[in-house]
Amino acid sequence: MDTRFLHRTAYDALTHASRVLIVSHPKPDGDTLGAASAMVNFCRTHNIPADVFCLDHIPEQYSYMPGTEEYTNDPSIFSSQPHDVLAVFDAGDLRYAGIAELITSMPTPPRIVNFDHHVTNERFGAVNVVDVKASSTAEVVYDFFRENGVEVSREMSICLLTGILTDTGVFSNAATTWTSLEAASDLLRRGAKIQEVSKKLIQNKTVPALRLWGTAFARLKHNREAGVASTAVFMKDLDEEQVDGEHADGISNFLNSVLDVKVVLVLKEMSGGFVKGSYRTTGDTDVSALAKALGGGGHKKAAGFTVAGRIVETALGWVVQ
Ligand SMILES: [Mn+2]
Description:
This protein has 321 residues and is of the alpha/beta class. It has helices at 3-15, 30-45, 77-80, 137-147, 154-167, 178-189, 194-202, 207-218, 235-241, 251-258, 287-292, and strands spanning 20-24, 50-54, 71-72, 85-89, 111-116, 127-130, 221-223, 228-233, 263-269, 274-281, 297-298, 302-308, 311-314, 317-320. It is 35% helix and 21% strand.
């Protein structure tokens, strides 16, 4: 794959667009928001008309990123405005991006530019700027700017550093490579402040949320033979602490960063008889294969699935039946 050619092709598509629709995936994290918001800033400085969409509401914790104020979650943006280019960030497929249906309501089929780093990416775009070696989609977008001679502003650097810090677990997980550190170093030079961004990403927990985490920690089971530590979060736990399900989302990453096991599995009871599973590893196990076997997907080190069933405690750990 000639990434230089891909970066150039994507640049031509974006700079020649009449109007771009920029998309972040639902339940947005710092990477999809950072990468997409950096592109919002690029469109502004290059006078490219652009709209920005995410199916879900943008959490307040990310509002420090310039560009996030432009997000809409109103699906009518797909049909009410003509967009000839659709740029999707950090999504392996259009379903994951939350727009598989919405895209059919567009007046004319757009040219899709797909910026991503997931190994499971389905290359759904006309241009697929997919680099599975990149730490984050933010790093892919950073390379896109550098390859095309785009001046990376302070605003862009704050957004891109957010994405890199999110997906590297603040430079601690296996996604932390010399290229991600080199990119981050350059972003600091361009005005991003690492302690300000990492504070936004880490120091944002509430007491009820941590009480929920404590409940999940108390249920941990360790299957020594398989090297899997598992736990479960039930809907009644959320009710007890009066917190939203999204507060359970950091549990798997936290356990993965502090537990000395091969694989972490966190099962979360969802409404309608579904169970969501999050696999994490810091070892050699390819958890995207485990998730894919259950109809999910993701990265080698972080993957997930949603299945019908209920969570059951066994001698060896928590399972879905
Ligand atoms: Mn990512």
